[in-house]
Amino acid sequence: MPELPEVEVVRRGLERWVAGRRVTDVEVLHPRAIRRHLPGASDFATRLSGQRIVAAARRGKYLWLPLDGGGALLGHLGMSGQLLVQPADAADEIHLRVRLRFDDDGPQLRFVDQRTFGGLSLESMSDDVPLPIVHIARDPLDPLFDDELFIKALRAKQTGVKRAILDQNLISGVGNIYADESLWRAKLHYEAPTSALSRPKALLLLASVRDVLTEALGQGGTSFDSLYVNVNGESGYFARSLNAYGRADEPCGRCGSPIRRAAFMNRSSYYCPRCQRK
DNA sequence: CGCGCCTCCTGTGTGC
DNA sequence: TGCACACAGGAGGCGC
User: Fold this and answer.
1) pLDDT digits (tens, 9 = 90+) for A172-197
2) Which of A39, A158, A173, A265 has minimal Cβ neighbours within 10 Å of its Cβ?
3) C-alpha to C-alpha distance for A185 and A214, rounded to whole angstroms
4) Nucleotide nearest to A239 (CA to C1')
5) Catalytic member of A59, A61, A101, A187
6) Reduced to 3 states, what is the DSSP secondary structure of residue A258?
């Protein structure tokens, strides 16, 4: 479940159901799921076994579980990854990739991922984040996110505004759904040049991003199908609040014009041709 | 250096 | 029914 609200829903589930527990056994069922752990599957399993998970943290779309040994289990869900807390006797999921068992014999933590774009790895920490994600910008729900710095960097870029807010080095946590929703709220065309954004317009965009992410989180995230679920397998309800994403040919909630779908970056952009002009 | 295209995968829906 | 193709919530790598 990819974007910030969905990942935060998972983080909260992990904090509640996994933090404080000691790993006893690690099973890697698909090597691609730990491909970013360069020493390989047996090293991953050996080093993780015996460690206690002390918390659950997140930046943007990355999740990590700090370990009592000082490092962290870092995870990214990619397009189709799930972290599920499942009773030991629950049948294996078709796309089960990694299984963690705990010393309390309680529910297992399972990494399930159909497309295997996601993955897990063991990392050392650099200050407050795992080393491989030091380049990831703070997300707009982080209390230390610097609004002024973002506005300045955004307007200094030579690109279109949607590309910019999808750039995880500039602002993290925003993906294709929430980019389109934020742009709809701010009445910005996805290809509007960042360098031409007025300061008030840039501030409006940032406020729109924050509002959308916050509202979606309040609804448990966006799910169109069973692929995007929390640690207990439940879907969120924000899909019914979407104004642009996935609504091609449906009337814009503001002006009634049919929402348009355009090809963009090997995927799609949904926008209102009247409210969001270039 | 920054930007933007391509690729890594599996599954589903659509049109012929 | 079968097949080909487009498309799906992401991000790293590489060419320009």
Assistant:
1) 999 999 999 999 999 999 999 999 99
2) A158
3) 14
4) C9
5) A61
6) strand
